[in-house]
Amino acid sequence: MSGAQLGLLAAVFLASAVEFVEAFTIVLAMGVTREWRSALWGTAAAVGVLAVVTATAGYAIVQWLPESTLRIVIGGLLLLFGLQWLRKAILRSAGRKALHDEDETFRREREAATGAGEDRRLGLDWLAFAVSFKAVLLEGVEVVFIVITFGANADSVPLAAAGAAAACAVVVSAGALLRHPLSRVPENTIKFTVGLLLVTFGTFWLVEGLGGDWPGDDLALLGLLALWLAASRAAVAALRRREPGYGIASRP
Question: S-S: 58 plus which of 1, 128, 157, 183, CB 3.0-4.6 Å?
Fold first, then answer.
């Protein structure tokens, strides 16, 4: 396995793990408060939809787009998407945006589920089914995007999908053992890392798609990663030097 493929696998695994942690918190709240059977059916339905979208969209993109166009489009999208992740991680690291709190999310979802009335459809608690389905689907959309973009550009959608599946297995196994929100997972550190990986690969593939060549081929990824890391840490330091309490958000 090449260095680029290892980087791809790491980015997909970490990004997927973060999204699955957030989805797991909501499904856990529905299962504990309402009904596990309905929550799990909602989760399974969302996973099925995401699997179909991943397979269909991944195949279509690989088959229909020329390689150079593929690298330009996907490189640009990864760069923009990664900058969004990186921006939020920088703000959180600098104390300008509140850290994501899984325990608070769990408490809020439990309160909402407890106060809701009974609504059964097709033999299921519809609230538990619908909320679990929505949570997994919305969090999973980002996972699908990363799997398709990384996998299609590296001509390895199955490898990217395997990384996402492994992350899902790890999160679900840990959650099942603990039976508690995975609040000790260092989400912002992981998101910072994922943001760096996304912008690194996005920059690399965008330049290649535009006809540029990188010295050292895949080794240039390490140089790009170092540059983005240095710029990000400089941004965190600059924000920390300003008024410490300014602009802190109440929610992530």
Answer: 157
